[in-house]
Design goal:
81% helix, two-stranded antiparallel ribbon, 336 residues, mainly alpha, 2 strands
Length: 336
């Protein structure tokens, strides 16, 4: 009961809220970033439909990133200082990508015809830049913020894998929200992106265990290996099943169970993040700073928790309402 008496449970609660915020952001903003990346492989009319499919949601999706950064800053100020100091440049590039996406999203629909393609390119480029920078930040975090050439190459590779993961959930979103030729194209995009994401999961898992004896022991020391074995097994099963659905079932009939790829991609995201969290727990900065040592004072955390319990239901309720209102197949995008 000591953990409840001295407030040591509060850092764990905020760590859980932080993980949930990152997961929800990766799913929700992940699919609209993925759709943005995939616009480069579509025609003009298809591109309009793709952007229409994310139009009602993409601004609100980014709220979860603000929540995650806010939780890190307020609840774990020591960790925030270490992480953002080491990731200053990719964070700036992430913001650049965010600005480019926001501006081009509106300007592409209102610009004169001769400039529309430039804004379409900017939207796709901003989306890819956001995916790459987030992947780079993840890779650097995994390696404990190493900055040598090998680490930089690894982080860039993780950036491409994150772009593949976002492209997968973006393509899955399009399978669910569109019809006809575009839906068939989305199935093809999803097949390629799934294989890229699967390769990324394998390489990141290997690199994590090779870079840290702590992570290696967490996964392979007995009896830990028995406890965590379901995570890789479920991941392999889910990738195999999703590949069969995309290549054998949805290639012929993309409308049949069109929600399944999106739901299965969410499952892959949950498993991947669960494995990452398990690898580094109880550290919030790998090998440097534990969750309980990085947290603010218990009194501050309790005050923040009250605010979080007010804000979170509103945020969840608004998100649910927006998706309920705009459910179903995508309609033509209009700014009238």
């Amino acid at each position: 009961m000591e953990i409840f008496e001295n407030g040591q449970w509060l850092p764990l609660v905020f760590a859980l809220l932080l993980v949930v915020s990152v997961l929800v952001y990766a799913v929700l903003d992940g699919y609209d970033i993925g759709v943005g990346i995939l616009t480069r492989f579509s025609t003009g009319k298809e591109r309009d439909t793709m952007i229409a499919s994310i139009g009602p949601f993409w601004d609100a999706n980014e709220t979860w990133l603000v929540l995650a950064v806010g939780l890190l800053l307020i609840a774990f100020p020591k960790a925030n200082g270490i992480i953002l100091t080491n990731l200053y440049l990719p964070t700036c590039l992430l913001l650049v990508g965010l600005i480019i996406r926001g501006v081009s999203f509106d300007f592409r629909a209102k610009a004169q015809e001769q400039y529309k393609e430039a804004w379409n390119t900017a939207f796709a480029g901003g989306s890819f830049l956001m995916a790459m920078t987030q992947g780079y930040m993840l890779g650097s975090y995994i390696l404990g913020f190493e900055h040598d050439m090998v680490a930089v190459v690894f982080c860039l590779m993780v950036g491409f894998f994150i772009a593949s993961a976002y492209s997968l959930i973006g393509a899955s979103w399009l399978i669910m929200k569109t019809e006809g030729e575009l839906q068939k194209k989305a199935v093809g995009w999803a097949i390629k992106a799934l294989r890229g994401m699967a390769l990324g999961i394998i390489l990141v898992s290997l690199a994590s265990t090779m870079a840290s004896t702590y992570v290696h022991d967490r996964w392979f020391a007995y009896p830990n290996v028995l406890m965590v074995l379901p995570i890789p097994l479920l991941t392999i099963l889910l990738v195999w099943r999703m590949d069969r659905i995309l290549t054998r079932e949805m290639t012929a009939q993309p409308q049949a169970g069109c929600w399944r790829p999106f739901a299965m991609t969410i499952g892959l995201f949950v498993l991947s993040l669960s494995g990452l969290c398990y690898s580094f727990y109880p550290y919030i900065v790998p090998g440097q700073l534990k969750i309980v040592d990085a947290a603010s004072a218990p009194e501050s955390l309790m005050f923040i928790l009250v605010g979080a319990l007010i804000v979170l239901p509103l945020l969840i309720g608004y998100t649910f309402y927006a998706y309920k209102v705009f459910h179903g197949k995508t309609q033509e995008l209009s700014y009238d």
